[in-house]
Amino acid sequence: MKLLINEPALQTLPTLATKLGLNEAIVLQQLHFRLSNSPLRYGGYTWFLHTYSKWQKQFPFWSERTISRIFLALENQGIIVSTQHYNEMKINKTKWYRIDYDVLYAVLGCQTDLLDESDCQLPSVSILSKVEQDLDASDLKDLKKEEKKNNVPIISEIVSYLNQKAKTAFRVNNKATKRLINGRLSEGYTLQDFKTVIDRKVLQWLANPEMKPYLRPSTLFSPTNFENYLNDSTNTQVPKKNTTIQPIVLDFDAGEEEEDKQLS
Q1: Contact 80, 98 (CB under 8 A)
Q2: Strands (DSSP E) found in the chain
Q3: pTM of the predicted model over 0.90
Q4: For the stretch 161-171, what's the b/e string if a residue is b when 16 or more beta carbons lie within 10 angstroms of its beta carbon?
């Protein structure tokens, strides 16, 4: 479909506009599209991080005050959920947004337990102009930077927990360690998942002189090992002395170094 002018198009869904209002329908569809491309996943949900000034660039025909009113109206209905909980610094008032699709579908009159998912699914924009593609790439880059920045406290807690349980002294700011942990966090694993893996392998390996050196990030947090260890954690039986330890993937070229010698 050809547009009158070469400019990014905003999609409006008639059902949303009828039920929620035209302005709310435009905002909600745009947020749905942004969520479909967002890497920010916390608490089991996907979030999109934006300020009113950045939203105003996407909706230049509205003032920031108008945009604020639209978002607050949707938040008051419970359709949009917002939080500032994931900001690293308390002075940062940027909002994180997600859509509560159960509430939305209830408002629209959809019964997701009786209808196919496609009956109530909100479509995303299928064709984007080059301008909007460039904007998406810039937003995605900013979101990934924000995601890694907000992971810093979690990384610190994970490494500290490993050092405490395994009597090691790995550095929090080690690039290889941060890359491994960020990788698992981006896949949706939680802080508790990391602690579960650490607890399990410490129980199995700490008293074994041959395996103790592998209580390290490069072994525990590698993609294949981490998932296997987490699944294995459902078996809480303490291994017997003569139990044969299953083969694992050991990365002998890993770059982690201990600040000091391992604690005795």
Answers
A1: yes
A2: 40-42, 45-50, 80-83, 95-99
A3: no
A4: bbbebbebebe
CATH top class, domain 14-127: mainly alpha
Measure the CA–CA gap between 222 and 150, rounded to whole angstroms. Answer: 21
Which tens digit of pLDDT belongs to each residue from 174-231? 889 988 988 888 777 888 999 999 999 999 999 999 999 999 999 999 988 898 898 8
pLDDT tens-digit profile of 93-148?
788 999 999 999 888 886 444 334 444 444 433 333 443 444 455 555 555 555 55
- The sign of the dihedral angle between the CA atoms of 188, 192, 195, 196 is negative
> Which ranges in the chain are annotated with CATH 1.10.10.10?
14-127
Phi-psi region of 232 (alpha: psi -120 to 50; beta: other; left: phi over 0): alpha
Tokens 């896949």 belong to residue: 187
